[in-house]
């Protein structure tokens, strides 16, 4: 069941819990392909904890990446990324940004799907699995996990590969 | 690892996180069998959010279903459902109903198991995976996830098939 | 995908959500091997709920086990356990103990890894999957799930077998 880093193509969705090694696994999928590689970072460093996290992730990444930071216009960043392999890390923060900016989630998701379909290079999308705990008491958190779950379902339906990482190891779901 | 909607028989348990596509997958398992199909709904529409959810689920379902609403007597509803395939959506709300009504959970689970064993038609049970987050601070939530986990274990032990849905895709666990 | 209780060797990591049957599955892996068996319990009975849980787990265990209780020095307990199979139940409580005692987590994890590498007998480690829910609002809970996730990744990287239990059934991850 472990994955041998065979070459992916099309769209790959890598889901996993917190600290499940999803980013590292996803990066390995991308760097197994010929470059240049584009890293689309959706994280906004709005506190020290987040800044530390982003810094640690960047330090762990091997050289050879072009990093693009994007908060909302993920579709535009994908269109501008050319034909090489792209890593999007992560869908969860992007969705949070879209919700916090009060944008229309359905429209943003539709634009993302169109941008993914238009790419010729491989795209690896990282997302947090957030739906396997107790129902959150907070209504915004409930809305968020509903949107996240539906987003993952839509992307998984057309993705070429879907993985769930557990303790750093990939379970192949599709 | 993806599931080809092969015909299920006996008891099938479909677990998954919130918005993981478990209901849709479970419905597909039932409608792959000859009808008539019975949908046993355990949801109580006690607020607008829940009413919306139920309405959306009903609208998405294809015609040809007989819908039965039940809050507590799931065993009785299964006994009354005849020999055709039955979908129970979902165990989690039923267990919540049983706990909120202060009924004996062990007795209710034993009655459910007896009713399932007595059926000749296929039964597909949907349940939420709720145990993969941080320990809830709320004691009732802790008790709930303990009961849910034990219920799923008991049903899985005798089920013919068990699936975990991830992003709308089934992982076959048994 | 279900596991036939084939004989494990080296280090086995069994992860699972709350009430997912991980302890029972892990015990079955150990008792499928020749004894004597050592059970290293990391639970501290600091309230009635926990005392009940520990008592219930002990009552369910078959005779033939030597039980060792340890709060912090898991590496020492592993070194003292001899060459027979050992079950550690669970990593999650041990990590909690280490954090609450304000010990250095990285040093404790390094000592654990060294102790595991030095064993000749099989070691089965049980841990809670806690990272698949919504981000906890509590900073300590966030730190905990980060530490737990990284611990699981490190152990899984060198483990011979890794399982995720779902409803009492094992998914083989490695």
What does this structure look like?
The structure is a homotrimer of 174-residue chains. Chain A is of the alpha/beta class. The first copy, chain A, has one domain: P-loop containing nucleotide triphosphate hydrolases (Rossmann fold), CATH 3.40.50.300. Chain A contains six helices and seven strands. In chain A, strands 3-2-4-5-1-6-7 form a seven-stranded mixed sheet, sandwiched between helices. In chain A, a hairpin with a 2-residue loop joins strand 6 (161-166) and strand 7 (169-172). The mean pLDDT of chain A is 91. Chain A binds chain B through residues 13, 15, 17, 129-135, 137, 139, 142, 145-146, 148-150, 152-153, 155-157, 162, 164, 171-174, and chain B through 1-2, 16-21, 49, 129-134, 136, 138, 141, 144-145, 166-169, 171. Chains A, B, C: InterPro entries: CobU/CobP, P-loop_NTPase. Chains A, B, C: Keywords: ATP-binding, Cobalamin biosynthesis, GTP-binding, Kinase, Nucleotide-binding, Nucleotidyltransferase, Transferase. Chains A, B, C: This is Bifunctional adenosylcobalamin biosynthesis protein.
Kindly summarize this structure in a few lines.
Chain A is α/β, with parallel strands linked by helices and about 170 residues long. The first copy, chain A, has helices at about 20-30, 50-60, 75-80, 90-100, 105-120, 140-160, and strands spanning about 10-15, 35-40, 65-70, 85-90, 125-130, 160-165, 170.
């Amino acid at each position: 069941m472990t994955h041998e880093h065979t070459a992916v193509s099309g769209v790959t969705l890598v889901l996993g819990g917190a600290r499940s090694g999803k980013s590292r696994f996803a990066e390995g999928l991308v760097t197994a392909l010929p470059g240049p590689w584009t890293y689309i970072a959706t994280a906004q460093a709005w506190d020290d904890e987040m800044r530390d996290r982003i810094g640690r992730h960047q330090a762990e990444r091997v050289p050879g990446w072009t990093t693009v930071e994007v908060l909302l216009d993920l579709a535009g960043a994908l269109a501008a990324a050319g034909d090489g392999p792209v890593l999007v890390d992560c869908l969860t923060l992007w969705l949070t940004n879209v919700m916090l900016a009060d944008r229309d989630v359905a429209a943003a998701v539709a634009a993302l799907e169109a941008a993914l379909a238009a790419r010729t290079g491989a795209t690896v999308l990282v997302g947090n699995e957030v739906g396997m705990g107790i129902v959150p008491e907070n209504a915004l958190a409930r809305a968020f996990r509903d949107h996240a779950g539906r987003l993952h379902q839509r992307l998984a339906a057309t993705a070429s590969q879907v993985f769930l990482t557990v303790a750093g190891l990939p379970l192949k779901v599709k």
